[in-house]
Amino acid sequence: MKPFKKISQIQRERTELTKSIAQPVNKKQEPVANQIGEKSEDSKANKKLKAIGLDCEMCYTNLGFEMMKLSIVDFETNKLILDEIVKPEGDLIIDLNTHVSGVSEIPSDAMTFDDVMNKLADITDDGTICIGHGLENDLNVLRLIYSNVVDTAILFSENQIDPMRKDPLKKLAWKYLSKNIQGNQHDSLEDALIPIEIVRKNLK
């Protein structure tokens, strides 16, 4: 078994990773299957966001776990880019997980999965940094790969003995921002914004 990293080493790595958010991403990316918004000559004229905060709320359908709400915030301006209910692709919604998600129904005119993909392709590309908490879950339901990810669940969790145990966003929000979030339900907009604020706090 490999020895655990020393806390000082982890802290150094954490600092370097958070600092990367303040620098332009110049590294040439290799093509990746399902990678969002790959750059092309035609898209260079369209300004893509440098970094975003992202969070999804999920429901359970006959196809398994699916996205039913997506929130995106621009890192540089804190501007809300997207906060929409998304229509699951499954024919049968089994559980909206309302007690956690706060979503009680899916409107008939809700965005579709393809609508979301088109929007993401418009505002992000392979150089966009994706910021969030526990992003593996969000990116799985989005079926996306971002080459540049800042995950506060990995960077700022205190449990150095067991790296698999990650601190909840609620705990990190209180520690770094003195904010009490997530009362009885999650809010994807709040969960997209708080990781941005935590990262920005650690850049100062």
Automatic annotation (TrEMBL):
Gene Ontology CC entries for this record: nucleus
Keyword Nuclease: yes
One Gene Ontology MF term: exonuclease activity
Domain of life: Eukaryota
Residues covered by region (Disordered): 18-40
Start and end residues of each Exonuclease domain: 50-204
Keyword ATP-binding assigned: no
UniProt-annotated location(s): Nucleus
Keywords, comma-separated and alphabetical: Exonuclease, Hydrolase, Nuclease, Nucleus
Free-text function comment from the UniProt entry: 3' to 5' exoribonuclease required for proper 3' end maturation of MRP RNA and of the U5L snRNA.
Name this polypeptide is given: RNA exonuclease 3
